[in-house]
UniProtKB/TrEMBL annotation:
Pfam families: Macro. It comes from the Bacteria. CDD domains: Macro_OAADPr_deacetylase. This is O-acetyl-ADP-ribose deacetylase. Residues 15-199 form the Macro domain. Transmembrane segments: none annotated.
Length: 199
């Protein structure tokens, strides 16, 4: 990532020697930033099922990407909870937007954690399929959808770390080198920092 304006609050490196004997590594970073400003290959959007824009990070991404994003999204036929779809990023500095639909929090007994984990895995699958090297995630479901931040952060970090470790050990074409947890507020970033340090 070639951002100069935003310094990571924390970075953690995951690495594994693969079967070929060479070492691959992936950097996980916590940033406090507006995700629409990040110069990464892909940013993830916490969208709604229509994929036609909304409030929160979704609204910010559509505003910054411009009306072509909405036009493109009309042909994506929406998104189911836990799934993800990819589009170009139009006027954003990134190349792609990966749109995912997080679960609405209903108290924790409605499969929310598994669905949220699917958002992260399916987004990373699409990133790898599109040869993405750097990707930034917002705190999916923790705004309008009401998922408690600490619990959502646990799911985010667990899922991403497990995905990366498995790919570093097994995948032959694993393109990802940097994964950013992009927090809008300092409070959210402090929670991500604390939990990533504990992992
Ligand atoms: N950059 C990074 N993070 C942001 C930004 C930004 N520019 N703006 C907000 N956030 P939310 P959800 C953070 O509500 O809970 C939309 O209307 C925000 O502080 O955007 O998954 C959709 O259309 C919070 O930490 O997404 C859906 O209807 C995080 O992004 C619904 O909201 C997620 O908050 C989805 O709700």
């Amino acid at each position: 990532m070639s951002n100069t304006q935003t310094k990571p609050i924390l970075q953690k490196h995951l690495s594994t020697a693969n079967d070929a004997g060479s070492e691959n590594s992936v950097t996980l970073s916590v940033l406090q930033a507006d995700i629409t400003t990040l110069n990464v290959d892909a940013i993830v959007n916490a969208a709604n099922s229509s994929l036609l824009g909304g409030g929160g990070v979704d609204g910010a991404i559509h505003r910054a990407a411009g009306p072509e994003l909405l036009e493109y999204c009309r042909n994506l036929n929406g998104c189911a909870t836990g799934e993800a779809k990819i589009s170009p990023a139009f006027n954003l500095p990134s190349q792609y937007v990966i749109h995912t639909l997080g679960p609405v929090w209903h108290g924790g007994n409605d499969n929310e954690a598994a669905l949220l984990a699917s958002c992260y895995r399916n987004s990373l699958d699409l990133a790898v399929e599109n040869d993405v090297s750097s990707i930034a995630f917002p705190a999916i479901s923790t705004g309008v959808y009401g998922y408690p931040l600490e619990q959502a952060t646990e799911v985010a970090i667990d899922t991403v770390e497990a995905y990366v470790q498995s790919c570093l050990e097994n995948a032959t074409n694993f393109s990802i080198r940097e994964i950013i947890f992009c927090c809008f507020s300092a409070t959210d970033a402090a929670v991500y920092k604390q939990l990533l340090e504990l992992h």
